[in-house]
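User: I'll paste a sequence; please echo it back and then give the predicted structure.

Assistant: Echoing your sequence first, then the prediction.
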Amino acid sequence: MSWITGVGLTPFGKHPGRSTLDLMSEAAGAALDDAGLGRHDVDGLLTGYSTTFPHLMLSTVFAEHFGLVPTYAHAIQLGGATGFAMAMLAHHVVESGLAKNVLVVAGENRLTGQTRDAAVQTLAQVGHPVYEVPFGATIPAYYGLLASRYMHQHGNTERDFAELAVTMRRHAAGHPGAQFHDSIDADQVLASKPVASPLKLLDCCPVSDGGAAFVVSRDRTSDFAVRIRGTAQAHTHQHVTAAPSLTEFGAAASTRAAMQAAGIQLGDVDYAAIYDSFTITLAILLEEIGLAPRGGAGRLAAEGHFSNADGVPLNTHGGLLSYGHCGVGGAMAHLVETQLQMTGRAGTRQRGTPGVALLHGDGGVLSSHVSLVLGREA
């Protein structure tokens, strides 16, 4: 058994002069305070990676910087799925007895710490070095291909994607730390600058500076602990040109295994935190998982299904699309918001008091999938 005992999150956006280690430290300090722990209580440390500070030993560099002396340290690289993969590993580390309190932390000055060209070049390396990268494809281009296939398969229009962007922006308006607060409507999404057809600028997550952290513990160290009940992964491919399908990925298998481990069914889920690097990412994942019918994610968003407690509240902090995306910490913000919702601490964003939450992240181009089930217990 393991518990998420504390969470910490910086505002996302521009933080000039703040380094990767600065942002990680701010989030980590907040998470430890929330968990009621000191640095001396941390015996496990997990970090992700940073494109602006690509040190080969980021976990031990951070331990030294932050004043930790862990008996277990590890760094993970799994793209957008890294944050949830670290939660899964922390869960197993705690259950195995290797550590009692594992600090999981990520942060990056991805917006102000590198040029736009450097960011594009770095992210483009996700593509296959022989069959994809030489043709100049970028991450948005790969997802644009998936969006075109989705529209062909289901008969949807670009407005269906736009409704998901509108929902995320509406949710971000309630969070003071979100990168974007101004409301948008579907027409504004459709009129925004084309990025990779059919995706527009507002269909894409922004680049952000920020940090996020949480503590996974063997015991409940605070009054605001939620239990990690089930975890699972699925990896179907790495490169788009090797994908067995452009409509079926590993999300269904991963979430099914996590729910089985947790002993729940999809109908038990009353809060969802789903990776949303692009509107098409969110649509595909919601539908493959079963939280929306095929081709129906946009319609449910327009109807308010993902905003109200009588539906399945989704990414109530605004998600990657509007809270922001600082690399590994981007998806970790989803987990922070989930923990706050489940412990009744989300303020004006609170949607009931969820008892069972499903979290899902993907890395690459829908290639690596990690699912978590969290539960609130007395």
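Residues 280 and 367 are 14 Å apart (CA to CA). The mean pLDDT is 96.
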